[in-house]
Amino acid sequence: MQTNGIVFNIQKFSIHDGPGIRTTVFLKGCPLRCKWCANPESQLSQVQILYDREKCAHCGTCTHVCPNHAISMGDDGYVNVDPSKCIGCLQCVKNCPAKVLSYEGETKDVEEVIKVCLQDIDFYEESGGGVTISGGEGMVQPDFVKALLAKLKEHKIHTAIETTGYIKEEIFRELSPMFDLLLFDVKHYDSNKHYEGTHVHNEQIIENLAWAISQGIEVLPRIPVIPDFNDSLDDAKGIAALLNKVSAKKVQLLPFHQFGENKYHLLGKTYAYENVKALHPEDLTDYQQIFLDAGIDCFF
User: Fold this and answer.
1) What is the SS3 assignment for 49-88?
2) What integer is the mean pLDDT of 92-105?
3) Which residue of 34, 96, 141, 276 has the lowest C-beta tally within 10 Å?
């Protein structure tokens, strides 16, 4: 079984990724390309170079030390990184005199991750917390996840996963029952609209959601409420109907925020939601009421 995975963050004292105080392990790799993604550095399953152009000395050192010619200097004097050529050797990061280059993603073995998770085991026990696998999409590294879960279960630690649900049926059905809780994103009821926002259709997602609920697995559907994508009352009605169809009894609303905006700049990417106002629970009372009226426990 694969005991190495590519991790981009291990966040302690997480309180929004499942019950109690948790440690969240963020894995790289995701099949979706959500326009509002708060963790754009999670999408590719490889080490990625981040570049702070505001601090760049324009010296060109990084272009000379890169063995794969993944870095070039544009006509404007700023650095361009080609992720398709980058091999993650980090020579550019190590040799940048102005320290404007950093990286996301690091290969870790199961024991390294478990060691960090066990540091807070007392907090898990006191608060009813545990460990959450996140991403990206945690299930895109299935063998690593299985190995992690086996070790966590040895210590009787509660486990959860944040999932897009866009996973091959055989992998989803093998991994899902191993978790104590699935935090399952539901982004849209309409497949074509879903594709517009995420670059994937939603049939596989709905099928996996329905299966998990039918198996008695603890599932919490969560809706990231995104302006001009799924934030209308008609959208709420459509999603509520979908949740009733799959027999979901509760749903959590995740109002749109701008926490990931600066990461797009560091990755040299365009952010589709630049300057779009964040949403707050008080903006979504009518939206929430749609689900309550449909008999679904809806909360933030």
Assistant:
1) EEECHHHCCCCCHHHHHCCCCCEEECCCCCEEECCCCCCC
2) 95
3) 276
